[in-house]
Amino acid sequence: MNNGHTPKEQFFERLGGVADEMIEAYGKDFALGALILTARFVAEGKGPDGVAQSLILTGEGQGGVAT
Hints:
The chain contains two helices and two strands; from the N terminus they run ααββ. The protein has helices spanning about 5-25, 30-45; strands spanning about 55, 65. It has a two-stranded antiparallel sheet with strand order 1-2. A hairpin with an 8-residue loop joins strand 1 and strand 2 (about 65).
């Protein structure tokens, strides 16, 4: 994947590709919501042990966020 871009630029290319796939599969609103939730999880961070502090609920609680 090295096409002369910096590692950071490569991450943006990959993130853009994932966003494009989500838009194609589920629409713009889904992609935007997923990216916003991802940004929230990143902002909240992880504990020193690497365990995520948040999770996305599935099933009956689908779309909800638990901390």
